[in-house]
Amino acid sequence: MTIPKTMKAMVLTGHGGLDKYQWHVDWPTPQPGRGEVLIRVGACGLNNTDVNTRSGWYSKSVDEATTGDAHEDVGSQDPSWGGRPLSFPRIQGADVCGTIVSVGDAVAPSRIGERVITDNWLRDADDPDNAAKAGYYGSERDGGFAEYTAIPSPNALAVNSDLSDAELATFSCSYSTAEGMLTRAGVTDHDTVLVPGASGGVGGALVQLAKRRGARVIAMASEAKHESVARLGPDRILARAPEDLRAALGDEKITVVADIVGGPVWPALIDILEPGGRYTCSGAIAGPMVTLDLRTLYLRDLTFYGSTVLDTEVMPRLVRYIESGAVKPALAATYRLEDLRDAQAAFIAKTHTGNLVVIP
Fold first, then answer.
1. Is 116 found in the same domain as 138?
2. In whole angstroms, what is the distance from residue 264 CA to residue 126 CA?
3. Residue 313 lies in a domain
């Protein structure tokens, strides 16, 4: 196929509000470098990293919940997930599904034509397990909010599935984040897992993937979204923020809290963990500043797990789940790429239950 010299792309020009996105119809099409492939993007999902990076929320100078608005003070040295400055302009978008249309040197031409999804963690080829050397696709390098995107060949994972591009674009970030959290916490069929924020992309993935491990799963979500959350298969659903969480749980013995919410409910989440329980976290959309009674931590022998850079086996395992039908996509809505601002506004407002995807 003939690859055009320019493409349509939504380009982030700096940290701030949605006005920092600029729509281009003649942005230079990337060329795959040595060891890279060029993907024609079929669909690209949205996630909290896109919002938080754009707004600068990751900076230690920001202590409020994720709002998606521009922050008055964004630290110049730590506004990204990795605590380092980004270079602009930048094309975001990590959750790509598409087709390989060109390859760089040292990549087999037979990869052309493969349908792929992306592994978003950009690793040092000589030291892949070193998290300190990891970057993120759509952050440290351009991503998929465009018609074409280039990525290292090992990060383009072939997938054999009857799901649509939009459905497949829901998996890379949300489901890998969830699987990474459950892997860190060692969740098994002996656990009862509490999932706050179960109506979101990662929360819904946590429900499915914890069930796949045989765990008992209790989801927390706003009442208006209970019906859609129920389709994911939790054993019970509670209100988003019960006035008395212990009373709402009754006799349930929570051994794992899998949290991306944080905020005001956080102390109650820790307080209901059983002795020896585990808390695993990969987000704080309701607020990053929380209060911990250290006596609860040490007297109950609790273990806390932060989860960001994934273990290398997580994404290949997720592809196997997808291909076997062990997990289902939670696609809420699709938007055109040029309407990314509207899609992100809806994502921030939690207008939908599940994942949002843009299509070039």
1. yes
2. 42
3. no
Distances (CA, A) of 357 to 79, 98, 186: 25, 13, 30
Q: Do both 22 and 161 map to the same domain?
A: yes
Q: Which residues does residue 352 pair with via DSSP β-bridges, in sequence order? A: none
Residue 232: which domain range? 174-306
Name the domain count of the chain: 2
**Secondary structure (3-state) at 133:** helix
pLDDT (tens digit, 0 to 9) for every residue of the chain, 360 residues total?
A: 799 999 999 999 999 999 999 999 999 999 999 999 999 999 999 999 999 999 999 999 999 988 888 887 777 788 888 888 899 999 999 999 999 999 999 999 999 999 999 999 999 999 999 999 999 999 999 999 999 999 999 999 999 999 999 999 999 999 999 999 999 999 999 999 999 999 999 999 999 999 999 999 999 999 999 999 999 999 999 999 999 999 999 999 999 999 999 999 999 999 999 999 999 999 999 999 999 999 999 999 999 999 999 999 999 999 999 999 999 999 999 999 999 999 999 999 888 888 999 999
On whether both 203 and 148 belong to a single domain, the answer is: no
Residue 261 resides in a domain: yes
Tokens of 156: 């383009």
